[in-house]
Amino acid sequence: MGLFDRVSRVVRSNLNAMVSSAEDPEKILEQTVEDMKEDLVQLRQAVAQSIASQKRLEQQYNQAETQSSKWYNNAQLALKKGDEGLAREALSRKKTFSDTAASLKTQLDQSSTQVAKLKQGMTALEGKIAEAKTKKDMLKARARAAKATEQINQAMGGMDPASAISAFERMEDKVLSMEAQSEAVAELAGDTLDSKFAALEAGGDVDFELQAMIEEMNGGALPPGEESKGALPPGEEATPNLEQTATDAELAELRSKLDEA
């Protein structure tokens, strides 16, 4: 294969690809029906011309037949009158018109056959156009549906469902983590306040208990430097510490049991 043939084939293949990609089914269907209508118009014109030609041939044929009959009658008349030469001349004219009539009859038969074929073709084309009109709307609807389906498939093809679902789940986990972190911070803040107040309350009890133990070890007297701790201002009476009193009673009972033993 020569270089020119290869280049020609490449060019033709590229042109065919470009034409195929540029073809719009809806537009092509519309244009095809219009082309068929134009063909039908031309075919009707051809049929009309053929019929007109057939009629002219038929008229010429009838005229030739009439002239042939006329000259035959003239030949008979000349023989009756005894003019054989005139009869011979009349028969010669009759033969000319007879030959013309025979030739016209052949043309007329051919024209009749041609007109019949053209009429059949016209009828077939009319049927095809009617069928094409019926199918056109259906094919256009199918073409639109196919185009829409292709667009949907392309859109779906560009998506990654697994990636989208994974991203959605990650965001859901992140929101849950943020909510848990917020609850934990709030809980820690509440625990800090509660622990501070609990420490204050517990610290007071321990101080009172420690003071009571110190007084008991010193026989009720405060050690030096501790006399002023817990002292009330002049004129005020100390409020009895019920918990300390109960503790003292419990300690006294414990000592009594130890002594008896």
How would you portray this structure in words?
Belongs to the PspA/Vipp/IM30 family. Residues 26-74, 115-149 form a coiled coil. By secondary structure, this protein is mainly α. Among the domains are: 24-151; 194-222 and 242-261, no CATH class. Helices cover 87% and strands 0% of the residues. Helix 2 (25-80) packs antiparallel against helix 3 (84-157). The longest helix has 74 residues, at 84-157. The radius of gyration is 64 Å and the shape is rod-shaped. The model is unreliable at 225-232 (pLDDT under 50).
Distance between the termini: 131 Å
**Largest β-sheet summary:** none
- Any idea what the radius of gyration is? 64 Å
What is the percentage of strand-forming residues?
under 5%
**What structural class is derived from the secondary structure elements?**
mainly alpha
Globular, elongated, flat, extended or rod-shaped: what is the shape? rod-shaped
Overall strand count: 0
Q: So how many helices?
A: 5
Q: What is the mean predicted local confidence, pLDDT?
A: 76
Task: Give the topology, please.
Elements: H1 3-22, H2 25-80, H3 84-157, H4 161-217, H5 242-260
Short description:
With 261 residues, this protein is an all-alpha fold. The protein has 5 helices and no strands. α2 packs antiparallel against α3.
Highlighted features:
261 residues; mainly alpha; rod-shaped
